[in-house]
C-alpha cells in the first residue's frame, strides 16, 4: 500500500504507474484536480493499465496544510490497515535570479517541498513503526550539491535540505523497521518543472552534453529504492561524474557553467511557450 505526493504528473505519475504494474494499491495526492482526473481517465483508456484502475485512488491534498495531510493519511490507514510506502514528489519551483523572485515564491518552494515532506513523514512514521514495516523515498535532485549557475537558489536550498533530512533520518531510524532513501535526478524531460519554470538561458552549455532522463526512468529507480532503501541514488549515472567533479573541483565546474545553453531539442522548456 503506497502513498505518493505530487502523484498526478511527471515523475510522481510515472512512479504511480510503475507501482501499479507491480500490483500495489496506490493512493495519489495532488493539488491539481484536473491532473488527478486526467490520470484516472488515462488508466481507463489504456489497455495495458486498465486492470490497475481499481487499485488507484486519487486525493486532492495540499501538502503544505498539515491537517489535510493528517486526514489523508488517517483515511488511507483506516481503509487498508497499513501504509507500506511513502514517496514524496510534491514540489514547487521558481527558477529565476533572486532579484526576480518574490519572497512569497521563495517561501512557497520551501513550504511545498520541505514542510510537505515533514507533514507526510510525521504522519506515516508512527504507523509504519507500529506496523513493523515502512519505506520512505524522497525525491531530491543533483541541484542539492551542484551550486554552479544562477537562478535556482531556493530550489537548491530545498533539495539540500531534503538530502540532509533523509541522511539524518537514516541514522535516527537505524534500529527501526522503517528505511529511508532519496533519489537525485539530473535533468528530466516531460515534466512541468522544465515546461513551466526553467528557461534555457538558466541552463549552462555544459548541460547540452548531459542526457535528460524521462520520468519513467526515474520511476524505475524510485521503485527499486522502495525495495533497497537506506541509500541515495543519482540518475542518470552520468551525473555521478558531474557530482564528483563539483565536489572536488568546484571552481572548474563553475567555469564550465558560465555560458547559457544552446537550443537542445530533447527538452520542452519555458522558452518554447514564449
Poorly predicted spans: none
Side by side, the strands of the main sheet go 3-2-1-4-5-6-7
Structural class based on helices, strands and sheet pairing: alpha/beta
Outline:
globular
- Rg, alpha carbons: 18 Å
Q: State the CATH architecture.
A: 3-Layer(aba) Sandwich
Helix fraction, binned, reads: 40-55%
Per CATH, the class reads Alpha Beta
Give the domain tally: 1
How large a portion of the residues is in β-strands, by DSSP E?
5-15%
Number of helices: 9
* CATH fold group: Rossmann fold
SSE pattern, N- to C-terminal: EHEHEHEHEHEHHEHH
Notes on the structure:
By secondary structure, the protein is of the alpha/beta class. It has a single domain, classed as NAD(P)-binding Rossmann-like Domain (Rossmann fold). The protein contains 9 helices and 7 strands, in the order E-H-E-H-E-H-E-H-E-H-E-H-H-E-H-H. It has helices at 10-21, 33-45, 66-80, 103-131, 153-172, 192-197, 215-227, 238-248, 250-256; strands at 2-5, 26-30, 56-60, 85-88, 134-139, 178-185, 231-235. Strands 3-2-1-4-5-6-7 form a 7-stranded parallel β-sheet, with helices on both faces. The longest helix has 29 residues, at 103-131. The termini are far apart. The model has no long low-confidence stretch (mean pLDDT 89).
Amino acid at each position: 500500500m503506497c502513498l505518493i505526493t505530487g502523484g498526478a504528473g511527471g515523475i510522481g505519475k510515472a512512479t504511480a504507474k510503475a507501482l501499479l504494474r507491480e500490483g500495489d494499491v496506490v493512493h495519489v495526492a495532488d493539488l491539481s484536480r484536473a491532473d488527478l482526473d486526467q490520470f484516472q481517465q488515462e488508466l481507463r483508456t489504456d489497455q495495458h493499465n486498465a486492470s490497475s484502475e481499481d487499485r488507484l485512488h486519487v486525493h486532492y491534498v495540499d501538502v503544505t496544510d498539515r491537517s489535510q495531510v493528517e486526514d489523508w493519511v488517517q483515511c488511507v490507514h483506516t481503509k487498508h490497515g497499513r501504509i507500506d510506502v511513502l514517496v514524496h514528489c510534491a514540489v514547487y519551483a521558481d527558477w529565476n535570479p533572486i532579484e526576480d523572485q518574490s519572497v512569497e515564491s521563495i517561501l512557497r518552494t520551501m513550504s511545498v517541498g520541505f514542510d510537505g515532506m515533514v507533514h507526510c513523514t510525521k504522519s506515516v512514521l508512527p504507523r509504519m513503526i507500529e506496523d513493523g514495516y515502512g519505506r520512505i523515498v524522497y525525491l531530491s535532485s543533483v541541484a542539492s550539491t551542484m551550486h554552479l549557475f544562477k537562478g535556482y537558489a531556493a530550489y537548491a536550498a530545498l533539495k539540500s535540505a531534503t538530502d540532509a533530512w533523509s541522511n539524518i533520518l537514516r541514522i535516527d531510524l537505524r534500529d527501526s523497521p522503517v528505511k529511508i532513501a532519496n533519489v537525485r535526478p539530473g535533468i528530466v524531460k516531460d515534466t512541468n518543472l522544465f515546461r513551466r519554470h526553467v528557461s534555457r538561458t538558466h541552463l549552462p552549455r555544459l548541460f547540452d552534453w548531459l542526457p535528460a532522463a524521462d520520468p519513467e526512468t526515474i520511476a524505475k529507480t524510485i521503485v527499486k529504492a522502495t525495495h533497497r532503501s537506506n541509500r541515495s541514488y543519482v540518475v542518470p549515472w552520468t551525473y555521478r561524474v558531474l557530482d564528483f567533479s563539483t565536489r572536488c573541483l568546484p571552481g572548474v565546474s563553475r567555469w564550465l557553467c558560465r555560458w547559457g545553453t544552446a537550443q537542445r531539442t530533447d527538452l520542452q522548456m519555458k522558452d518554447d511557450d514564449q
